[in-house]
Specification:
By secondary structure, the protein is of the alpha/beta class. The chain has 12 helices and 14 strands. The longest helix has 33 residues.
């Protein structure tokens, strides 16, 4: 049976040869008859308009405005459909918002069905209540998921949120993001957990409000007051950078909290840490947690993403939500025996996840988008 898929996407790294995102798309394309990925890009970003790689076909919108990206992605998708008038397509949108506007418009063709992907906890009130535009998007998104034939989500947590909105469970496929942990698993297997002072803490990700990094910085302040020696390394970029640096200065923590711009050297960053910390208000899947687990790090995290599914509180990770809880959990992890026990269990969970997931995921993707 043919599997012909058009994806409306924000994933610009897919357009970069050799990137992890490109490799993941190639693995999916191997199970599809044709896989067309249309990516929202701006003029001047330097992406080729079209790239072909076997059954994988990549298109950049290269538009001047956000509205232009929507229009150009619709034009590209319409051209693909018109060039294959007898081909049945599934159009999948990366979210139930802007990309779904395009997907639903393309699905007016008789040969097209529309599906939706949801990679984040987008209907968690913490993700949209602060701004009017986000509330409008959330209202439209609720309409979309209630009127879409099939939805792919990355965690059971997100599936439960959709069921609570009235979406029939049999229209929802749970499929985590494919994990590329090959370079990290050997690091975790060889890691030695010895007494460490200061204990090296790591955050890796976008410096955005939903990451709640103020909690981690305040936890470090508590630990300094309690004379627990720690060093927090924050790796990433985003709109909160200046405010967070000011918070560090106000607590006189410059010697204990450092900032580094985003890097693709995930292995090197993970290797230089003892404990990974994630204080997010919400996550879709939280792949960084599995990356930390594969790297052999002990983990303190909020109850988000894959926590409760692949990584279990008390068995693989310590769960905390307030600054005091983070400080208490980190203090416990100064014990190298506990740190080693949790990290080894988390590493085993990441290893098992990779062993059973990759080929299964690729085949489920193909089956989910059957025409």
């Amino acid at each position: 049976m043919a599997h012909n898929l058009i994806a409306i996407s924000y994933a610009k790294r897919t357009l970069e040869p050799g990137s992890r995102e490109r490799a993941r798309m190639q693995s999916y394309a191997a199970h599809l008859t044709s896989y067309h990925v249309i990516v929202f890009t701006r003029q001047g970003e330097g992406f080729p308009a079209v790239q072909h790689d076997g059954s994988l076909h990549l298109y950049a919108t290269n538009a001047r405005t956000k509205l232009g990206m929507l229009w150009q992605s619709y034009r590209i998708g319409r051209t693909i459909i018109q060039q294959h008038p007898d081909t049945q397509f599934v159009v999948t949108s990366q979210d139930p918002f802007e990309t779904s506007l395009v997907g639903r418009a393309l699905a007016r063709a008789r040969t097209v069905r529309h599906h939706v992907q949801i990679h984040g906890d987008v209907f968690n009130p913490a993700s949209y209540t602060a701004m009017l535009l986000q509330r409008v998007r959330a209202r439209y998104g609720r309409y979309v998921v209630r009127h879409t034939a099939a939805i792919r989500v990355v965690s059971a947590r997100i599936k439960r949120s959709l069921v609570a909105l009235g979406v029939a469970p049999d229209r929802i496929t749970v499929l985590p993001v494919q994990a590329d942990l090959a370079a990290l698993l050997p690091l975790g297997a060889s890691r030695q957990h010895t007494p460490q002072s200061p204990l090296r803490l790591l955050f890796l990700g976008r410096l955005a409000p939903e990451k709640q990094l103020s909690i981690l910085i305040n936890a470090v302040a508590i630990l300094q007051t309690n004379q627990v020696a720690v060093q927090l390394h924050i790796v990433g970029a985003g709109p909160e950078a200046a405010r967070l640096q000011q918070q560090v200065s106000s607590h006189h923590l410059e010697a204990h909290v450092t900032f580094t711009p985003w890097t693709d050297d995930i292995t090197g960053v993970m290797q230089s840490a003892d404990v990974f910390c994630l204080s997010s208000a919400h996550e879709g899947w939280g792949m960084v947690l599995l990356e930390a687990a594969a790297s052999g790090l002990a983990i303190v995290t909020t109850d988000v993403g894959c926590v409760g599914e692949t990584l279990i509180s008390g068995e693989h990770v310590l769960v905390a939500h307030t600054e005091q809880q983070f400080a208490d959990a980190i203090t416990r992890l100064t014990d190298p025996v506990l740190r080693s026990t949790l990290a080894d269990r988390a590493h085993q969970a990441a290893t098992q996840f990779v062993a059973v997931s990759n080929d299964h995921q690729e085949r489920v993707v193909a089956g989910h988008y059957t025409n």
